[in-house]
Structure formats: C-alpha cells, structure tokens
C-alpha cells in the first residue's frame, strides 16, 4: 500500500501537467493562427502588387502621352486602395508580413506606426522587384526619396529584349570575377562568363580562346 501511495500523482504534479498541456495547446493554436495570417497576407500582397502595377502603368501612359520616357510616381501608398494606411480611421487592421531574416511580424497598424513604416518600405521594395520583371520591359526601375521612378526606351534605343540578348540571359556567379551577373557563352565551347570579364578575356579584333578550355573562340552569345 505504501508503494502504491508513492507511485500516485500528487495534486501539485497534476497542476504541472495541466499547465503544460494548456501551454502546448496555446503554442499550437498560435502557430496555426500565424500560418493562416501569413497565407492571408500573401494573397493580399499579390492583389496589392497587381493593383499598384496598374497605377504605375496608368501614370506611365499619361507620361508617354506627353512625349516623356520617364515617369515618377509619388506617394504610391496613397494611390493603391489595398495599401495599408498609417491611420485607417475605421477599425483596426491587422496583418502579417515576412521580415528579414525570415521572422514573421504581426501587429496593428493604428497602434504601431513603426511597424507601418517597416511594412511600407517592405511593400515598396516588393513593388520595385515586381516592376523589374521582363513582362513590363522597363529600362530602369528605381526609388528616389518617396517616388518610384520607371523609364522606358526611346525610339533610337534597342528594345529590352534585344538588350537582354546582347548582355546575356543566365544569371549566375562568374568563375573569373566571382560576382553574380548575367552570363554570356563562349562559342563554340559554351563556357559561361559575365560580359565584363569576356570583354577583357576576349578583346575584339584579335584571335581569342576560351579562358577555361583554351579552345579557339568564334565569338560569344
């Protein structure tokens, strides 16, 4: 009987078990809610970027009508309906956003202006990445203070497709300079190097050979 009593769980130990179980349930619930919030944000972000891109296109069309080849879009956050605002006015909007180095931050924009500033910068960077996609074909996409700058080619300049073909179309680390750049292939061996290194390794007007295999080069592509 004494042994049986010694093996029984004390009241305090049962409390420890209850608290531990509730903690595990809470952690699981929070992880599930966070994952759902992140998915919701990612879907919202995709719609937001599409809407922002439409705003940029409309501004660029107006600039092109004025015979311009450059457009500055100021205060993009104020022109996109889905863009989180610093002071939403009605209710409290919550969101989740991926922040470096991969941590997820969640808060309310009306109560945390610092987070709104971080999210605003994050979205501007995401929009810049979005506008640099080949489907837009802009010659330049950059940020200047509070404005997004985009430029497109003039009639006497090569098309974006031709420029990409001339500068290379594979992005990787060059074995010569060790920098991540657009690669060009040596013909006929096919070894890849960045355009800058090839200019030095294969000067125009003289017989050349591949820097790696030493095979005679007939040019690059």
From TrEMBL:
The lineage of its organism: Eukaryota, Sar, Alveolata, Dinophyceae, Gonyaulacales. Signal peptide: none annotated. The keyword Zinc-finger applies. Residues 7-20 have a biased composition (Polar residues). GO terms for molecular function: zinc ion binding. Residues 1-25 are annotated as: Disordered. Gene3D superfamilies: Zinc/RING finger domain, C3HC4 (zinc finger). Residues 174-214 form the RING-type domain. This is RING-type domain-containing protein. Pfam families: zf-C3HC4_3. Keywords: Metal-binding, Zinc, Zinc-finger.
């Amino acid at each position: 009987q004494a042994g049986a009593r010694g093996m029984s769980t004390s009241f305090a130990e049962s409390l420890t078990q209850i608290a531990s179980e509730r903690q595990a349930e809470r952690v699981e619930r929070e992880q599930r809610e966070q994952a759902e919030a992140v998915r919701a944000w990612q879907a919202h972000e995709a719609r937001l970027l599409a809407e922002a891109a439409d705003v940029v296109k409309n501004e660029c069309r107006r600039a092109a009508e004025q015979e311009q080849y450059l457009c500055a879009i100021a205060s993009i956050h104020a022109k996109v309906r889905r863009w989180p605002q610093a002071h939403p006015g009605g209710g409290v909007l919550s969101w989740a956003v991926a922040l470096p180095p991969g941590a997820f931050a969640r808060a309310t924009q009306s109560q945390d202006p610092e987070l709104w500033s971080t999210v605003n910068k994050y979205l501007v960077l995401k929009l810049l990445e979005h506008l640099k996609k080949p489907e837009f074909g802009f010659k330049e996409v950059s940020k200047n203070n509070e404005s997004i700058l985009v430029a497109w080619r003039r009639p006497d300049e090569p098309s974006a497709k031709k420029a990409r073909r001339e500068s290379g179309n594979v992005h990787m680390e060059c074995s010569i300079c060790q920098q991540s750049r657009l690669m060009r292939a040596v013909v006929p061996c096919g070894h890849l190097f960045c355009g800058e290194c090839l200019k030095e390794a294969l000067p125009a007007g003289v017989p050349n050979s591949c820097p790696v295999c030493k095979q005679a080069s007939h040019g690059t592509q």
